[in-house]
Write a structure and sequence with these properties.
30 helices, binds adenosine-5'-triphosphate
């Protein structure tokens, strides 16, 4: 609870809550204490439509107004909302049902099941019509013909446009009717040399770094095109594919999908035959998958097109913060001799980008006027400053075209200037050590000052911070002056259920309420969170870092890059002019790295190498990567794959390797599955892997001592003395022995994430099916619930040995000084407090994850035997020794 001394906001002199940290309170006295509320009518009368609405939304007025809104003529504000916002048009009419794409539907009498809603076609088309005007006003609309022309004459287009200019939603819609986008029946020669007729093209793929962006963009584009899109859609022009959720309707022309899904599709369709074009969106994120996709696309554009019957694949690369120089040379026709050097692009990009950022400092996002609300501020918002331009100019020669508009190097380029709405940026005056505390205060300062409608989107580093801040905001909100708008806090992070994620995007339904979305960087690119006017950026994010010395990956909290700062800022000003409040100084921004190092250069590349091999790349060292990791790292990955039997002595993918690559899992878990199939513990191994690779932690941490004692009591029944692997096995089996309707209670009792368990069950089902189709699982296990069966001690050891085989690099032995040292590298490692083995001294341990905080910790730890490790290192699968034997 916040300290009692906190006054209610609006109680008079000090509206800002007091802080335990006096230094951060200084200079942060709430400047709005006398200006909030609805009395100062002069402010409201000066306001724009949004501010006027704040008055309309005061409880008294809105109470009356809302009841009659459906009858009232549509106000100009409501009309504006309807045009710009996804749901606002219908919120006035109180439909009985709203379809997942935000469009009204009719319910068939006698049923209330959502699938039974017949979409009201007229309403859908009217919604699309209403959006037309807003679409026509997007900056990219002016480039429509140019984009079409360039792609008629060239196969590659680099499209650089500012955040919110309309790239993701409009580009595929400009292209799907193009003549080159028609599906064609083509005769090709198949592997056996025989002629075969295949369909090529007809669909445009557009990749997104994250599932939430793929789904929300698909829904928006469907709405703009006047078609339905939900899980029951059978016919329609727009679809999407993300893990565990694919909607691919008949007649689909545009498909949003995650980068991982496109790579997965390439396993079965290496020539991407179903596509006429692939749009790679947000390439600046430089995930490992996008780097691999870029390499494969380069091979498809410039290589042998026989697999596509000679039909070219168009490639469009898009970003607001695109590194153009390197990409131009990367995709250029080899015969034009671009000065592309694999593995060296990141530095080239960086130099060009920094040079360009320094060259031009005009504020392209700002309208140049001080915003009325912040004109006389003190404290963190006082230092109003102009934002850095997010664009990077393309070097002159690259746009050179012949008279027909054909780019000499095959790579066309378009820069879309401007965005629809302005964004004002504000910086902290001085650095603050506790960004969470700073965020909390800023949220309330702005809440008091900012009119409704106007939701906030706050960027934080991870789930824990988000959940902590959510509780704090909700506690503080209880103390607010009741005249102020209510607050609804919506978390948004990767491991939330899709429905919970979607809720953060929906317009808030409660009256006189401000939505405050607390997000990780999953909301950083591509997305439009409806209703958001203000972005608050903590300036940090969690970054995965490979530590070659330790041979392990860790998650580190780091300042974001300039590119991320621009993207975060770009989440404001999408439906109306906005503000971005940065919880760092202008100087700190100037010192930011231009961009994040590409993932492939800071990660263990074993996954990348396996993915390349599985997609037919024999010579991985010469695969065209924009940036190639250190040759030593690549060789190490090849060696690891060889040790795992994924590749043979000649570097050719083995059957085991093919299987490993087919699971949507890190290579080592794939290896566990292959090994478990041999050791007759496949079903058990799948249960454990499903829990571990669920997208959030299964075991929740008790928040109080009381909770801890209670949970410990319940968890005694699932905690296993041999460690976390067997604890996961017990947990999943105890969970699925419960009837569906009891599972939530069971999870609550054991403080287990019900959401994570549901995901684990889905992963488990997917793995059972894949293994069955690979014939390593004879039959699918009987469906749940099944009675709990404890494995025999020998079965437990077999399972642990199987994991040791795949994770031998993550084992440690007890040293003479009572500390664990890793088997490879001899580095000290400690058992993490979250492990059931915390504090135990054992002969040897296996840990599946590693984190580096104050110390080097192993997580998900199991007790193993030194001779199993030795056996695994020697590749001796049959190294048998009884427990306790020295
Ligand atoms: N889900 C949505 N709800 C409401 N408006 C949306 C939605 N998606 C897009 N828009 C509108 O369309 C505009 C263009 O969005 P789009 O995603 O195409 O831009 P973009 O150039 O790809 O931006 P970014 O580079 O930030 O991803 C937004 O600024 C917003 O006005």
């Amino acid at each position: 609870m916040p300290p009692k001394a906190h006054m209610k906001f609006g109680d008079g002199a000090t509206a800002a809550p007091s802080s335990t940290d006096k230094s951060t309170t200084a200079g942060k006295q709430n400047p709005f204490s006398n200006t909030y509320g609805f009395k100062t009518s002069s402010r409201s009368s000066q306001s724009n439509g949004g501010k006027k609405r704040a008055r309309d939304c005061s409880p008294k007025i809105s109470g009356k107004g809302e009841a009659q809104e459906g009858l009232k003529p549509e106000s100009s504000i409501a009309k504006k909302q309807r045009i710009n916002g996804p749901d606002s048009g219908f919120s006035l009419q109180k439909p009985a049902r709203v379809l997942p794409n935000g469009v009204m539907g009719k319910t068939i009498k006698g049923t209330n099941h959502s699938k039974a809603i017949l979409p009201n076609q007229k309403a859908i088309h009217r919604a699309a019509e209403d959006l037309k005007k807003a679409r026509a006003e997007l900056p990219i609309a002016r480039s429509k013909m140019d984009i079409r022309q360039k792609l008629r004459r060239n196969d590659v287009l680099l499209l650089n446009g500012e955040t919110g200019s309309g790239k993701s939603t409009q580009t595929p819609q400009f292209l799907y009717t193009e003549p080159w986008c028609k599906k064609q029946l083509i005769k090709i020669q198949n592997k056996d040399g025989r002629a075969e007729e295949v369909a090529v093209g007809g669909v445009i793929a557009i990749t997104q770094p994250r599932r939430v962006a793929a789904i929300t963009l698909a829904q928006r584009v469907a709405r703009e095109m006047g078609c339905t899109l939900d899980r029951s859609t059978k016919q329609g022009e727009v679809g999407y594919a993300v893990r565990f959720d694919t909607v691919v309707p008949r007649g689909m022309k545009i498909k949003f999908l995650t980068e991982g899904m496109l790579l997965q599709e390439m396993l079965n369709d290496p020539y991407l035959r179903q596509y006429s074009a692939v749009i790679v969106d947000e390439i600046h994120e430089r995930s490992m998958d996008v780097d691999l996709i870029s390499g494969f696309l380069r091979l498809l554009i410039h290589g042998d097109k026989r697999g596509r019957g000679g039909v070219p694949l168009k490639v469009i690369i898009m970003s607001a913060t695109l590194d153009l120089g390197g990409l131009k040379t990367f995709f250029a026709k080899p015969e034009t001799k671009p000065d592309y050097e694999p593995g060296k692009n990141h530095d080239v990009f960086r130099k060009e980008a920094i040079k360009s950022s320094k060259k031009s400092k005009e504020d392209i996002l700002s309208d140049g006027k001080a915003p009325a609300r912040f004109g006389k501020l003190k404290g963190p918002l006082a230092n109003e400053t102009k934002s850095l331009p997010p664009k990077v100019e393309l070097p002159e020669e690259s746009s050179s075209e012949d008279d027909e508009g054909v780019a000499k190097n095959g790579v066309a380029y378009i820069h879309v200037k401007g965005r629809q709405y302005t964004v004002k940026t504000y910086y902290d005056e001085k650095p603050t050590p506790d960004y969470l505390d700073n965020m909390l205060k800023t949220v309330f300062q702005l809440h008091v000052a900012e009119p409704l409608p106007g939701d906030f989107l706050c960027f934080l580093t991870g789930q824990d911070e988000i959940e902590t801040l959510k509780i704090q905001i909700e506690e503080w909100a209880l103390k607010l002056n009741p005249k102020l708008p209510k607050i609804k806090v919506m978390p948004l992070y990767g491991s939330l259920s899709p429905d919970a994620q979607q809720a953060a995007f929906d317009k808030v339904k409660e009256r006189y309420t401000r939505k405050i979305v607390l997000a990780t960087n999953i909301a950083e690119t591509s997305v439009t969170v409806s209703g958001v006017h203000v972005v608050i950026d903590c300036g940090k994010s969690k970054v995965k870092q490979y530590r070659p010395r330790l041979g392990m990956e860790s998650l580190l909290n780091r300042p974001i890059s300039l590119v991320s700062a621009i993207q975060r800022q770009g989440r404001a000003g999408r439906e109306i002019s906005g503000k971005c409040v940065k919880l760092y100084t202008k100087e700190a921004e100037e010192k930011m790295e231009h961009d994040e190092k590409p993932e492939i250069m800071r990660s263990d590349v074993i996954e990348a190498v396996l993915k390349m091999k599985a997609r037919g790349v024999d010579d991985v060292l010469n695969f065209p990567l924009m940036d190639r990791p250190d040759i030593v790292a690549m060789e190490k990955a090849l060696l690891q794959l060889h040790v795992m039997d994924a590749i043979d002595d000649n570097g050719i993918l083995t059957d085991a390797g093919k299987k490993m690559a087919s699971y949507p899992l890190p290579a080592a878990y794939g290896r566990v599955i292959v090994e478990a199939a041999k050791n007759d513990c496949l079903v058990e191994a799948i249960d454990v892997i499903a829990c571990i690779t669920s997208d959030s932690e299964i075991f929740l941490q008790p928040k109080s001592e009381e909770d801890r004692l209670e949970v410990e009591e319940h968890r005694k029944l699932i905690n296993h003395p041999k460690g976390d692997i067997l604890t996961y096995l017990t947990t999943l089996r105890k969970y699925v022995q419960e009837e569906q309707q009891n599972r939530l209670d069971w999870c609550k009792q054991h403080m287990i994430s019900s959401r994570a368990m549901k995901m684990a069950v889905m992963i488990r089902r997917q793995l059972h099916q894949t293994c069955k189709s690979q014939k390593i699982l004879k039959e699918l296990p009987p469906s749940d619930p099944q009675p709990f069966k404890e494995p025999l001690p020998t079965q437990e050891d077999t399972l642990l040995k199987t994991f040791v085989k795949a994770f031998v690099s993550k084992t440690a032995l007890m040293g003479g000084d009572g500390l664990y040292v890793t088997t490879l590298g001899r580095n000290p490692v400690y058992i993490h407090p979250s492990s059931v083995l915390y504090g135990r001294k054992l002969e040897a341990v296996l840990f599946l994850e590693h984190v580096f905080t104050m110390k080097s910790y192993g997580k998900k730890v199991s007790a193993v035997q030194a001779n199993w490790i030795e056996g695994a290192l020697l590749g001796n699968r049959d190294c048998e020794k009884e427990p306790g034997e020295s």
